[in-house]
Each structure stands twice: as C-alpha cells, then as structure tokens.
Specification:
This protein is mostly helical. Helices cover 83% and strands 0% of the residues.
Length: 421
Amino acid sequence: MNINTFRAFKSRNYRLFFIGQCISLIGTWMQKTAVSWVVYALTHSKFMLGVTLFGTMFPSFLFSIIGGVAADRYDRYKLLLLTQVVSMIQALLLTILIFLNHYNVWDIIALSVLLGIVNAFDVPARQSLVYEMVDDKKDLPNALALNSSMVNLSRLIGPGIAGLLIEKFGNGVCFGLNALSFVAVIISLLMMRLPKHIHKPTNKKVLTELKEGFIYLKNTPSISFLIGMLGLISLFVLPFNTLIPVYAKDIFHGTASTFGVIDSAIGLGAFAGAIFLASLKPAVSRRKVLAINTFVFGLGLVFFSHTTYYPLALVFVTIGAFGMMSQITLVNTLIQTTVDSSMRGRVISLYAMAFFGMVPFGGLIVGSISQWIDVQNTVLAEGLIAILIGILHVRFILKHKREAAAKPVIEEEQLEVIVEV
C-alpha cells in the first residue's frame, strides 16, 4: 500500500465526505445487526428475517429509477442532505419504539420499508455527488474504490460492536447510536464547498425523463453491458452468502461463531479487494481488471463449494470475495467515468436497481435451487456462472477492440470515396 492508494484525499470535499460516511456506516451496520436480532427474538422465524431484508431492499429496486430522475433534475447536494435527515429520523423512531418496549415485528418491517424508499433516492444522489467532490477527475476511480473499502471495513467493525452493545446494554443503544452517527454525515456535508448548483428548468414529465434514461442506455452498449452483467451476477452469484449458515452448521459442523468467522473472511476478502482497486494507477485498464476478477470470483466459489477442510475453505472464500468486490466497485467506476453528466443520476439508479434489486430475488432462487441439488452443488453452479459471465466480458472487450480498430479504416475509405466524387 502506498500514498497512491489514498490520492482522492487531496480533495477537501471528499475527505469530509469519507470521514462522515465512515462514522455513519458503522452505525448502519450496527442497526442492521440489531434489526435482525430483534426480529428473530420476536418471531424465531428465518422466514421473517428474509421478509425484513426484502422489505429494506425491494423498495430501493422499485423506486431507484425515480431517485435517479430526482438526482438529475434537482440539486444532488440538497437531496443527499434530505435523505440523511430522513434516515436519522427513521433510526430515532426505531430507538423510541425499542426503548418504550412498545412494538411488534410489523413496526420494524414498516420502518425498514421506509429506509428502503429513502435509499432509492440516497444512492443515486450520493454516488453522483462523489464525482463533484473530487477535484481531479483522474482520482475518481480511487475515490469510488475507497468508498468500497469504507463499506467493507464498517461491515467488519459494525456487527462486532453491535453484538457487544446488545449483550451489555440492549438493542435500543444500537439504534440510538446509529441515529447519532448521521449527525457526522450532516456536519460533513454542511462543511463542504461544492460548486453552486445551476438549476435547469424543464417541462419534461418524469416518465419522459425515465424513458430518456433507458434510451441512453440502449444507445450506449459499453454501459448497458456492464449493468446487464452486474444484474446477472447479483441474481445468480452474489446470493451465495445466503447459504453460508448452512456451510457453518451442516458442512463444517460448527456454531454461530463459525458462521461469524466465514462472514468475516468474506468481509476481509472484499476489503482487500477494495484496497487493491484503490491502489490501481489511473492508466490501468479497469475493464481488464474487472474481467480478470470475475474469473477470480468464480474460481474462488468453485474451490470453496466442495472443500470440507475448514481452514482451506476460509482461504477460498476470501479469494472469491476479493474478486467479488470488483463486480460492484469497478462497474460503478466505469459508469461514473464514461456516463454523460446529464444522465449520471438515472444511469446510477439503473446500476443500483441491478445490484440492490436482483440480490433479494437471487436469494429466493438460490435458496430454492439448493433444496434440489444441495448447497455445495448450488455454490459450484454459482461459481461456474461467474466464470461464464467472465468469458462473455472478455468476448465483449475483444469485440469492442476490433470495432475500434476497424473504425479509422472505415472513415479513411469513406474519405477516399468523397475525394473521388
């Protein structure tokens, strides 16, 4: 790791954003852990845990494209401030319910749905605004990779803190601290010095702007391929982690701590992958790295799937998670660095739909298939699908190179015809 890894920190606005988000994300993971604990303590139902997850993620999928239109139409900075304030209110409501001990599982799910709707507007606004926070646009890939490292580090830290707090002080403390953590983000946003938003009046209807986003995607195959690839990965491969409890209990004959260790190995691999991406020099081809790491992800799952020796399985799942991180981060990076600025919010919302929307459906598919062909064969199949998607990506890169090489020749031939005429 070298200073190149943190070059995006040269931008004052991004430094402020990073610090605020670090604090907030730890609080977010603490709340996620506490929500799962509360729901399971109330219901003793794994199904209700799934319903709670679906309640948080599906609204993000449903409303994300509208959130993208809002991010393109309105001031992204003010929109992000608003989503942070509403998220803080959501956490405060959870805190009050828990401390008053006057709640049922549907109250928790209803507030999870509210958070899902807020996230549908938060993600396009936040991701679009990162572009404006970075002074030197060459540092944008580094900034997005650092974002991913922040998310995965908080995923490692947050649940552990939540477990200790729940045991010593009860669930309400986690929700209260999460509400408090949003103060850090709001302060960091208020301290930023961003270019003044130039409002562009429009008479277009929301549906028209939605349609424009899809037309832009159709006419930009380099971006539509990436979003399609991420959608497939999210639907068929990323849900492998829903089967990890089965590995912990039935294959490695362990306990809840075994599950925790495997989950931490996934988090460690993803964090290492994010730091690796942050260390890449601007000249490195992100598309090639994405293609290679898709194979790394697939091979990691293939080897992990039937490994019954626990320490070796941890190595393979860590390698797989290293490759997994590229699917999320590099697709975002490639989109952000190539998309037209007027379409950034809408395209990022489609990226969010492909990621957030497909995972819960994929979890249902993977869970059902594992009942027929068993868990190990299901994870093996997921690894093979990742490898197949990697092959498709390599073919796309080669096709794009051939077309780029042929283009000057075509233009030269056309020029000769014009001269002859």
